[in-house]
Amino acid sequence: MTRSTARRGAHVLGAGAIVAATAIVVSGCAGGSPEENTDPDAPVTLNFAWWGDASRAERYEAAIDIYEEENPNVTIRTSYAGFGDYWTARNTEAASRTLPDVIQMDLAYLNEYGSFGHVAPLDDFFGDEISVDGIDETLVTAGEVEGETFGLASASSSQASMFNVPMLEELGIEVPSEPLSWDEYDAFLGEISAAGADRDPVVYGGLDYTQYFWMFQIWLAQEGKSLIDDGALGFEREDLAEWWSRSADLVSSGSVLPPERLAQFEGVDPLGAAAVATDISWDNFLPRFSEGPAAPELTLVPPPVAEDGATGLFLKPGVMMSIAGNSENPTAAARFVDFIVNDPRVGEIFGMSRGVPSSETAREGVVPTELDAQVLAFEETVAENIEGASPAAVRGLGTLEQTFVAISEDVSYGVLTADEAAERWFTEAESALGV
């Protein structure tokens, strides 16, 4: 059987607004697990859904072509949507126990879907249907909720500083050869802004990094603390206030792009537009920034470190794969997940578009571009300096991030002091975590 007829009937959702993690529709499991047809040659239809754009869809379709050709009894029906509409559809399906057999999963939603039985544990499939031998252990355990694994990362990424080296040289700024401390990095941003003040348009050192939720997690790890500890916040209000207090100095000194100016960048990254000479972001964003309107030549270097050299770096699991708890063919679904995560041909098809492939075998298939090679080389370096771990997949994690970003913007604009902001965030965070 081919998938062409079935696929034409698959519903493809449109893009929409991002849905907060707290809006997930959850309900308890209804009844027992469906009985599986164990005949390996019996016809099987799997429904597979993901979020993403047309480019990602083309890649998945190309991978599925290979899989169906090698597994002629398997038909895979697909659907995709923008991130917000994707989760709206999944929430509705979760409530009615009609989720697609295989779904893309995000760390922010993993706890809700796993703890309510909407997605199935993968542990029983590890070793037979799904190989995890070539995947970093921290990426495997990142998919755990209460001791069971409900999502498997197909890719990973790490935080990196990105320097526009040619621009820095034009400004007469010496490019650091060693990782900077936070105070040194702030001074570096100020030096860039001072040198770029006479350019048209003005060039700033960077962006207000205190708004970066995941960078705060790294800073906490450098201080020997964590975002989440045993289901509760692993740090104090004073820690967050100290982090956000850096914002006022960065903005008032002109070291970073003013928030009013940042708001004018609609659909364009300031680093890609050469409005700033450096920024901190996920390493797999390098191609995206490099392909900006100014086509900057960017170099990846480690982000700022603690005074004692602690990095706090961790690999963040990206684009996780989960199997629906209501799937009638979980074993077949597990074999498909193994293919998507581990097959080198899938690695070649996707390259770095989902992040660095989490699986060694998938990475072997990547034919890297020059930018891809730089990302791969950086992650190999990072692997030697991993000190932290991705935050536990607690319920409400998505809300913590969204609230963090919203409140940090008020700090940048001067609407809230660092202490006021920390107090507000803690109140909302503890409510989201139920502590």
TrEMBL record:
InterPro entries: Bact_solute-bd_prot1 (IPR050490), SBP (IPR006059). SUPFAM superfamilies: Periplasmic binding protein-like II. It holds the Pfam family SBP_bac_1. This is Carbohydrate ABC transporter substrate-binding protein. PROSITE patterns: PROKAR_LIPOPROTEIN. PANTHER family: ARABINOSE-BINDING PROTEIN-RELATED, DIACETYLCHITOBIOSE BINDING PROTEIN DASA. It comes from the Bacteria. The lineage of its organism: Bacteria, Bacillati, Actinomycetota, Actinomycetes, Micrococcales. Signal peptide: none annotated.
